[in-house]
Write a sequence for this structure.
């Protein structure tokens, strides 16, 4: 069979695609049959995009983020991450792909209570092959970048909500992820703190080129993105 060579434009398009899903579907079994959490999700995310995912409670927003972040599995369809089919990977391979490329920010912060701010930020680096001195240097850079050097020896319970979320963002960014996933990142913050986090995301996207997918209920926060995806009953709606 004669193979048609890729054009330069096609090659660039393939290289610029971070992830792509085709007919991605996830369900749970119940007594009366299947309950679909995600249904026929077709999505392509390009490098440098800032995408907001919106929809009512129970529409599948967090489930979609967890699947894209490889924290959760799916039942049907195809998920390609940097050209690799995620469903064909072993758990260790999937874990490697996640830790080297994805940063995750949670609504409830998910900081480790027994660790200081400095230790919380350092945690992801412990899963990488780095010398202690390199880890300390990277943490120092993050503490300085987010103006929390003075908080480094405090524990999460000693911080405000906004400060805890800043630590969560610093922890997610310390591995220099190509994709940042944020699940209701301002949900537990007051409006001023929320605005500061969103402005930080905007800066990360525009100046550092970090690709961001955020789940949000807020139309104001969604507007920070350059594309909005609406979910309803597990489906993308136009």
């Amino acid at each position: 069979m004669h193979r048609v060579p890729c054009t330069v434009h096609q090659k660039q398009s393939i290289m610029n695609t971070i992830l792509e899903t085709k007919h991605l579907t996830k369900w749970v079994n119940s007594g009366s049959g299947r309950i679909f959490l995600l249904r026929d999700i077709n999505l392509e995310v390009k490098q440098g995009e800032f995408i907001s995912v919106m929809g009512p409670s129970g529409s599948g927003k967090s489930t979609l983020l967890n699947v894209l972040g490889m924290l959760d599995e799916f039942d049907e369809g195809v998920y390609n991450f940097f050209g690799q089919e995620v469903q064909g990977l072993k758990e260790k391979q999937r874990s490697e792909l996640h830790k080297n490329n994805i940063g995750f920010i949670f609504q409830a912060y998910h900081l480790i209570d027994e660790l200081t701010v400095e230790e919380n930020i350092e945690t992801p680096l412990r899963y990488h092959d780095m010398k202690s001195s390199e880890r300390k240097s990277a943490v120092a850079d993050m503490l300085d970048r987010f103006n929390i050097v003075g908080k480094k020896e405090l524990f999460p319970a000693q911080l405000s909500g906004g400060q805890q979320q800043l630590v969560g963002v610093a922890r997610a960014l310390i591995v220099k992820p190509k994709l940042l996933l944020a699940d209701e990142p301002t949900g537990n913050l007051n409006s001023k703190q929320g605005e500061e986090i969103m402005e930080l995301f905007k800066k990360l996207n525009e100046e550092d080129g970090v690709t961001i997918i955020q789940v949000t209920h807020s139309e104001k926060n969604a507007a920070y993105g350059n594309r909005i995806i609406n979910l309803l009953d597990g489906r993308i709606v136009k």
In short: Residues 1-14 have pLDDT under 50 and may be disordered. The CA atoms of residues 202 and 224 lie 7 Å apart.
